[in-house]
Structures are given as C-alpha cells and as structure tokens.
Amino acid sequence: MEEIIRTEHLIYEYAVLGDEGEPESVNRAVDDVSLSIREGDFVAILGRNGSGKSTFAKQLNALLYPTGGTVWLCGKNTADEDSLWDIRSSAGMVFQNPDNQIIASQVEDDVGFGPENLGVPTEEIWRRVEAALAAVGMQAYAEKSPLRLSGGQKQRVAIAGILAMQPKCLILDEPTAMLDPEGRREVLKAVRELNKAAGITVLLITHYMEETVDADRVIVMQKGKVTIDGTPREIFSRTEEVRDAGLTLPQAAQLAGHLKEAGIPLPDGILTAEELTEELARLYPAGGKPEAPAAEAGRSRKETDGVQAAEAPGTFVKTGTPQGSVLTLSHVTYTYEAGTVMESVGLDDVCLSIRQGEFLGIIGQTGSGKSTLIQHLNGLIKPTSGEILWNGENIYDEKFNLRALRGKVGLVFQYPEHQLFEETVLKDVCFGPRNQGLAEEEILARAKRAMALVGLPEEYSDRSPFDLSGGEKRRAALAGVVAMQPEILVLDEPTAGLDPAGRDALLEMLRKLKEEGSGIVLVSHSMDDVAAAADRIVVMHGGRPVMDAAPREIFRREEELEQIGLAVPAVTHICGMLAKKGLPVRTDVISMDEAAESIREIFPETLPANA
C-alpha cells in the first residue's frame, strides 16, 4: 500500500509565558518524530496526558505548523499554503471537545456543513448526512439543536460531520471519551467499517486500551517522542515498558496475566475477552472442579440490604430513601424550552437522596439526564416542579443562602474549559477559596494542596490553563473546586480524557476525600471506575432513576443494563461469558482480584503446560 502520511524529524515547540507575558521557557511538545503511515492502515496512538499526542495529530492536517522538520500528507507538504485546501479536505479531524467544531443551529445542517464546503451536490449531501447520522446512532436528532444535546450526543454529531466529508484520513482525538458503552461501540464499529470497506486511513488517539486491539499498529508517545511502535500484540507483550509509559494493558490481558501467575498455563498474547474465555474453556475439561463456588457466592448482607429483587427479567431495581440524607430531590421534573416546539423533558419526577459522606456513582446512556440531574444539586438549574432540600431546607426558599450552598456542593463540569478563565493555573485554583473570604495564606495553602491532590506539578502554577492538554485542564478545574473543600463534590465525567495512571490517581484522590468526610457524586460512562469506587450506584434512563443499589447488585444485571445501552465492568463480562460456556465461576465479581480468584478456584492446583 502507498504511504499517506510521513513525518521527518518533526519538532513542535511553544513558548511558556511568564508573569509579564514574556516568553520564559520553551516546551517541546513533539520531539524529533519520524514515521510513515500507509494508506488504509488503522493506527492507534497512546500516551499519557501531555505526551504530545494531540499536538502531533494537529500537525497532520496543518492546524499547527512544524517548528522543525516536515509533515507530508498525500504527498503534500503541510507547510505549503497552496496545499492547505487539499490537505484539510483529505484529513478530517474530530477533537476532544465537540463544541470546538459544532457551528450550526440544527444537527443535520451541521453534519452537512463540511460536504457543502467541499462543493458536493445537494442530493449527495443529504444522502451523506443521513448515512453519517445512522452510523453514529443520531438519526432521531437530525432536526434538534446541538445546544440541547448532551456532551456525548454532541460528540456523535461532530464525528458524523467528519464522516460525511468522506476524507481519505480520519484523525480522532479521544472521540469516545464522553460516550456511553453502546455509543462507543457504535462509533468504533462505524470507524472500523470505513477503514475496512472504504479504505479510509484511521488515526485513533485514545486512553481506552480495548479500543486498540483491532488496530494494525499502535504507537506510544512519551514526552513528545515515539517510544514504542508495533502491532497490538507486540506492544502489550512489553508489559513493563507499557507501564513505564503510564499506560496499562487491556482488561482481558491483565486478567490473563493474573491467571498465568496463579499457575494456569494460558498462552502469551491474549488481548480480548473472546480469546481469554476460549482458552479457559479449552483448559477447563482438563481438570475442572465441579464443586466450585456458586455464581452468587461472596455477596455480603450490606451489599444486598434494602434492595428489592426484580420480579421478572427486565424489571428494574429501586431502593427506599437512604437514612442520614443531606441532599434530597423530591419529585423533581425539569423541562427544556417548555411551551415551545423544542420542548423536551430532561428529568421526570425524580426522587433521590444523597447521604452524608457516601460515594455515589451515577451512570446512564448519553442523554439519560445525568448532567441535568447534577446541575440541580447546587441550584445551577431550577426545577420546573418539585423540591430540592439541603438538610431539610428548600434551597429556593427566600431566606436560603444559595451562594453558600454552592461552596458546600462543588460541581466540576464535563468540559473544564467552561470553568477555567484566569491568567495562570494557580490564580484559577485560588479563585474559589478567595471568594469564600479566606485569608491569603489559607488560600495559597489550599490551592497548592488541591493541585498536589489532582496531580498537577507545582511548576504548572504560572502556566496559562488554556495551554494545558485536555486531561490537564480537567485536573486544573477539579483542583479549583477541591480547594473550596466542599461537603459534597460532584464530578461530571472527570476521568474522560485522562490517561490510565491519571485516572487511577484521580480515583484514589476521591477515595481520600471521602475518608476525610467529603461526599462524592461521580457521573461516569466507565463502569470499571464506578464499580471500583462507589458505595452505591444510581442508573438513569429516560430522565429518571431506574436502578439504585450497591455496585455488585447493579452489575449482576448485565442483560437489563444492555437493554438501556450500558454495560458491566470488563471482568464481570468475562466471568459472565465463562458461565455461559459452562464454567462454574461467580458472575457477580466487580474487580480484577475477585475475577482472578473466582476463575482460579475452579481449576486444580496444577495443570499440565500443554493442557
């Protein structure tokens, strides 16, 4: 196949400004990168936040120009201004934040904007728009305003807009970070079909290791350099190097490694759940133990207490009002653009209570009402009907101090750019505590502690928050809220855009805050994150809670979750697949250690190497 992309000793540098706005130092974001990508390849690019992935991607369609070296796309030099039209027509890019590329007031018009600018005939434009929206599951929203879509829905529209242009090369910068599990599957399926059927070259920047296993090639970047380059099996067999890069292995590969260490003779190179379950099913008849623990073993009374069992398949689980609640929603309904033709229900008669000091996870399909729900928790949105109570007081009573509540219930939005505005990171983090009227010494102490907690190095203090990577901006926004020391910290998709090491560090930080007495409300599309961290999970669907229980109780209902576009943690799914193959493993596991223990228990102490 012919070469479509080539970089030769590519360098990109930008100046770091000091307090007076003068260049103080130079940061080399891309450092001497030389590589070649063939037409029709599917290439995944991995790396920690700040490793240079997004900066490198923006060089490929001339959104940025090299400081040194050259970039060639379809045989054209990106530094040649006369070639810009052809280059940007050939390489379509989907950004981390869809708001950066959605411009029209109606979804179908936005998707058709690119083809129209390429001079595509009107009839063909509408055919492409319909096909692109179908590919990302957004046909029903064709006539909606993008302003009324959730973050995940906007991302699908942004992807559809690029698909409709039918570029030769598709560059995707964390395209699924804001999508629910079903949306992620739909988008990746559409991208893979374009790659295979239409021969479109795909460059996928991602922090989801599972999204890379079908790639032709994986490139790992560190500090602006390419440090590892090979097929997925080659890359993930170099376990120590991957971990040194701040990354991790796909969940199935991690579990296979645990099982090999425990003595089960699995072959090297397992990457997918299907490969792992096939190998375990092959090994099991060689000496399985039929007296293995039942699937429901190990569930504690605490985890099932107060949960109604479903009466029939498809019946969702709910619980009563928790004791010790500090924040309560009573029959809350919220209608967008009420009384107009654009009217839509965001929340539908929601009754929900949050306990003091609990870690509550909220999951749901894109558009299920999660973000609308949490914006009610500190009064950013006023319900159309119903009440919101803080320690029994209606937050909309005339005498209630709503401003003080917003210091007690801190909210970190989906997109950190929406709440970053100061000249430097340190000033931005100090803004909240300063508005609380604290002494300057206390303000600085809180800001520095918050930055350390979220993993922002002290040397970032004088940098502009707008010069940070997407993941770093998310940490800066979080630090600004943490510095206010709220009683309840509410986070909307905080791990989206974070590398694996950053994600683990953030979840550990949230656990520490909980131990110190803070309540945590975590909205996430990562089932693994909420399973690992939450005491309790609320599942949203159609604007209302449809399940409310402990994580183990929620995730044992895989079929019901799939019906509403969700999934279960990867290890839970793997054990479910094994159970369907007749292996007597527990199906209620929610952690890697539980899954490894459950599987190891059904095998004898030793198995022959050639079993």
Measured by DSSP, the beta-strand proportion falls in: 15-25%
Radius of gyration, rounded? 25 Å
Q: Can you summarize the main beta sheet?
A: 6 strands, mixed
What is the CATH domain class of the largest domain? Alpha Beta
Low-confidence stretches: 290-322
Query: What characteristic shape results from the CA principal axes?
Result: globular
Helix content: 25-40%
Number of distinct beta strands: 20
Could you name the CATH topology of the largest domain?
Answer: Rossmann fold
CATH homology superfamily of the largest domain: P-loop containing nucleotide triphosphate hydrolases
In spatial order, strands of the major sheet run 6-7-8-3-9-10
Per DSSP, the total helix count is 22
On the 0-100 scale, what is the average pLDDT?
A: 88
Question: What does this protein structure show overall?
Answer:
The model is unreliable at 290-322 (pLDDT under 50). 35% of the residues lie in helices and 22% in strands. The two termini are 41 Å apart. The protein has 3 domains: 3-244, P-loop containing nucleotide triphosphate hydrolases (Rossmann fold), CATH 3.40.50; 251-296 and 571-601, no CATH class; 301-395 and 403-555, P-loop containing nucleotide triphosphate hydrolases (Rossmann fold). The strands form 4 sheets. Strands 6-7-8-3-9-10 form a 6-stranded mixed sheet, with helices on both faces. It has a 6-stranded mixed sheet with strand order 16-17-18-13-19-20. Strands 2-1-4-5 form a 4-stranded antiparallel sheet, with helices on one face. With 611 residues, it is of the alpha/beta class. The radius of gyration is 25 Å and the shape is globular.
